[in-house]
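We treat protein structure as text, and this decision shapes the records that our systems exchange. Because each token names a local backbone shape, the row as a whole describes the fold. An entry from our holdings is shown next, in its original layout:
>
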Amino acid sequence: MAQRFLLDTNVLLALLLQPERLPFDAQEAIRNPEHLVWFSAASIWEIAIKCSLGKAQFSFRPEDIHQLALDSGLTELPIRSEHTYQVAQLPWHHRDPFDRLLVAQAICLPSPLWTTDASLAVYSPLVHILAWAS
């Protein structure tokens, strides 16, 4: 059965730059051509901001990550107005605006959000926490 899921920024970057960090079953699910795997424009925006701040872990260009995601068969999810409306409905368990938008997008789709940030689990049963591979 085909699945669909949304990757948060950390999972997206791991997939594209260090796939061995992801659990094997997550790698397999992402590679399955029957599955629809989204990355959000919000993640590219977050990467752009962190690059512009000169963060050491972001020594790449956001447009390169965007193209690599597309070349890898991922589907870009735009930010839509209804996603922002959903952000307004979320309690303030978490302050990161990008994570809040990703949760809102997952709820609106609806689709599981794959993340490594366990603090997001309080928002929805759609939040799926991945542990880094050892």
Notes: The chain has six helices and five strands. Residues 92 and 100 are 9 Å apart (CA to CA). The first strand starts at residue 4 and ends at 7.
